[in-house]
Write a structure and sequence with these properties.
The structure is a homodimer. Helix content of chain A is about 65%, strand content about 10%. With about 170 residues, the first copy, chain A, is mostly helical. The two termini of chain A are about 40 Å apart. In chain A, helix 1 packs antiparallel against helix 5 and helix 2 crosses helix 5. The longest helix of chain A has 29 residues. The interface between A and B is large, with 62 and 61 residues. The structure holds a DNA duplex (30 and 30 nucleotides).
Chain lengths: ~170, ~170
DNA sequence: CAAAAGCGATTGACACGTCTACTATTCGAA
DNA sequence: TTCGAATAGTAGACGTGTCAATCGCTTTTG
């Protein structure tokens, strides 16, 4: 299912368009990843009433000293920008999953603190969430396919990092 | 609830948790796909001021008879639900990329019609968009990796389709 | 020390998606 | 034929993300 016809045409790389096959694989790649991501997210939501964002934040706080973290630390840790974190944390605070406290050492700062509710929700969610990932992703693939998925991801990232525009976009 | 205690028999497949390596690949898989998707979307936005959703709709209308389609047909064609399409089309109408007309044969219905502006925007966007996909995705991978990416996607979809819950979730 | 520059975090505006509810119309069966 | 169910589309509420602006506090520096 993957025979590519030999390409002997000496067009410049950046001018060439993808073939129909390449485009199909592109779409399958993006759409499948999104489908699987959505599936796992839906499971997490169903089982534990948590979004993936909630989970990421609760995980970070669970592992943090005193179950608390400075807002920007947390943002850096999970790779979000401060605005996104602030919005999300606002919503989580309304649901009593975390709370905000002012920072003793820097009055500009805020600390995000895990609440009991939040800790409990996180702990209830972990095992089913990980099992779902195993069920939907790991168990769907052979060992070779799993390794190949990792290789592909690594290659894409490496290529993106070497692209000038990619670097600019990623830096924001 | 309490059946997780020490067990004397081999664990069932669905009970096992992913290993650290498996989890790392899971994260790389999901995050990389998202990164690459976002990169291509940003390029499309930069070059043509179109979102991926805009592009999908404009593509469908470009190929449609008379550059127009019934709303639900369009939705089915691109795999969106009617509400999502209606919201998106509302935003696109404000930007004069499409317009809505009432349907002659069914007064409940609406037709989405490509405007000149929309057609022009789409045609300007196509080649750069496809080239970007080639640059960021196809050129990043060897032929084997590309084929493997397709295989992985196929395996994941097949597995999802065979999961009872997946089928339910996907059907909505 | 005071003004300027920098930093931490929040906010508002908007795009996008999902879910549910609602309106209007068409269709199907009693 | 009429009335209830199904269908087409829209609309509102809300979660989520990004971007730019803002606000208060800290640090730097003239």
């Amino acid at each position: 299912m993957g025979e590519m016809t030999a390409n002997t045409r000496p067009q410049r790389r950046t001018r060439r368009m993808p073939t129909a096959d390449e485009l199909r694989i592109w779409r399958e790649y993006i759409e499948t990843a999104e489908l699987v991501r959505a599936h796992v997210a839906a499971s997490l939501q169903r089982e534990s009433d948590l979004s993936t964002g909630d989970y990421v934040i609760l995980l970070a706080l669970s592992e943090a000293d005193g179950h608390r973290m400075r807002s920007s630390e947390l943002a850096a840790h999970i790779g979000w920008d401060r605005s996104r974190l602030s919005h999300h944390v606002g919503r989580m605070e309304r649901r009593d999953l975390i709370r905000r406290e002012e920072c003793a050492t820097d009055s500009r700062g805020a600390e995000i603190v895990l609440t009991g509710t939040g800790a409990e929700a996180f702990h209830r969610s972990t095992a089913p969430h990980l099992r779902e990932i195993r069920t939907v992703f790991v168990d769907a693939l052979t060992a070779e396919q799993l390794a190949a998925a990792g290789d592909v991801a690594r290659a894409l990232r490496a290529h993106l990092a070497s692209e000038p525009r990619a670097a600019i976009a990623a830096r924001r």
